[in-house]
Amino acid sequence: MLPPGVRIWSAGSQPARAVNPYAVRVMQEVGIDISGQRPKRISDVPLGDVDTVITLCVEEVCVLPPGGLAQENWALPDPAMVAGSEREIEAVFRKVRDELRDRIGALVASAAD
């Protein structure tokens, strides 16, 4: 969704040991393979190469970025915290996936203006 050359990092304040299998499954549904990814800590991100931080904090600890970086908080629930049937859990992962896609699309469109 982003122009060539734009680098993206994903990290958390308390990352899991492995990528959630529901996340892998719902991303595969839209043609994106994240099965080779691994959860990373904020300290794994080269913050000197970052100009915008997007946090997704709702119920978890939200690490604030260093000063001087643009920041947006997209308060989205952590789908890994949802209990229910497999179908219900997948539905929450899909909803968050689609919301992220829409917000990223809006961010890209606003940057192009």
Structure description:
By secondary structure, this protein is mainly alpha-helical. The chain is built from 2 helices and 2 strands. Helix 1 crosses helix 2. The radius of gyration is 15 Å and the shape is globular. The chain starts with 20 loop residues before the first helix and ends with a helix. 3% of the residues are buried.
Shape: globular
Q: Specify the number of helices.
A: 2
For the biggest β-sheet, the strand order reads 1-2
| Total DSSP E strands | 2
**Fraction in helix:** 25-40%
The topology string of helices and strands comes to HEEH
The helix/strand class is mainly alpha
- The proportion of residues in beta strands is 5-15%
List keywords for this structure.
113 residues, mainly alpha
What's this, in brief?
Helices cover 31% and strands 7% of the residues. It is mostly helical.
Topology:
Layout: H1 21-28, E1 52-55, E2 70-73, H2 86-112
